[in-house]
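Narrative of accomplishments. A recurring question from our advisory board has been how the design workflow behaves on a single, concrete structure rather than in aggregate. To address it, we present the structure tokens for one chain from the evaluation set, followed by the sequence designed for it. No filtering or post-editing was applied between the two.
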């Protein structure tokens, strides 16, 4: 899907963690049309620095209120500029882009770091009759604010931390086999650092479970024109993460 430009109005732009911000944007067309797992490409400056848009997943959309929610980690110039936007400022959003998740009846949502953003969206937009379990991986307990984003949803949340300061010590893969032994899932949805996604995909493969990965490759155009985001498929084809993804079956692509 190639999306369209919508000039949104910033409704809220708050810091929610040491380097993580939550921006709510009034963008009624995208709020109505976005799907879980899709993203928008944000123009962070009206000039040429930086020139390229920055892809950010929808962490939420509310068709009634006409808003989309973006959760972003400040890592460089573009995301730093996003923090400077205030209520009522205009933000240029190109979207909805890409293909999202397919959510089955019994689903496990696994998120690490800022890859938790699309899982917040999935948890908020579960199809009728779907039962979800959430598994989150943080560096330490200071990142526990991510878990609060799931509080209003009817989901069980499991936490791992790299240093053991909250939940189980280790990565999400440490608890994945026991979680899957105790609950039957039709599919695992995962987004986060590449080693974590690889680990989750490996466990899913060993258990014979379907696994959908959301790739966050660096992007140029975001709309299929530059090949900057290409990944190799297991079938020998090259896939564009911006158009064919960002969500893929984990058996479909190398990542
Ligand atoms: C489909 C998709 C969805 C995304 N969703 C989110 C989201 O919901 N929230 C969020 O915070 N970020 C998300 N990202 C990542 C986000 O696009 C980048 O962090 C952002 O573009 C960085 O811009 P910058 O100008 O601040 O940093 P830059 O100055 O461009 O880069 C700063 C540092 O971050 C690294 N970096 C930049 N982009 C990426 C990337 N895609 N993957 C790994 N390292 C990167 C660079 O190598 C560099 O070291 C997503 C990326 C994709 C492709
Ligand atoms: S970012 Fe240009 S083709 Fe995907």
């Amino acid at each position: 899907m190639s999306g369209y430009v919508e000039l949104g109005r910033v409704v809220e732009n708050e810091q929610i963690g040491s380097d993580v911000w939550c921006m709510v944007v009034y963008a009624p067309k995208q709020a109505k049309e976005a799907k879980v797992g899709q993203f928008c490409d944000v123009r962070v400056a009206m000039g040429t620095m930086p020139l390229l848009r920055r892809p950010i997943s929808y962490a939420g959309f509310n068709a009634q209120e006409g808003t989309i929610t973006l959760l972003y980690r400040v890592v460089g110039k573009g995301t730093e500029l996003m923090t400077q936007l205030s209520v009522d400022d205009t933000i240029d959003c190109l979207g909805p882009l890409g293909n999202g998740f397919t959510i089955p009846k019994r689903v496990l949502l696994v998120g690490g770091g800022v890859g938790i953003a699309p899982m917040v969206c999935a948890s908020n937009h579960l199809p009728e009759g779907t039962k979800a379990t959430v598994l989150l991986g943080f560096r330490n307990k200071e990142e526990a604010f991510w878990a609060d984003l799931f509080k209003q949803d009817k989901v069980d949340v499991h936490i791992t931390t790299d240093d053991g300061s909250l939940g189980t010590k280790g990565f999400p893969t440490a608890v994945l086999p026991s979680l899957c032994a105790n609950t039957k899932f039709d599919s695992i949805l995962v987004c986060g650092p590449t080693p974590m996604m690889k680990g989750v995909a490996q466990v899913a493969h060993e258990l014979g479970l379907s696994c959908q990965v959301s790739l966050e490759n660096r992007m140029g155009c975001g709309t299929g024109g530059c090949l900057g985001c290409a990944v190799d498929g297991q079938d020998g084809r090259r896939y564009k993460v911006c158009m064919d993804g960002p969500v893929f079956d984990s058996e479909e692509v190398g990542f």
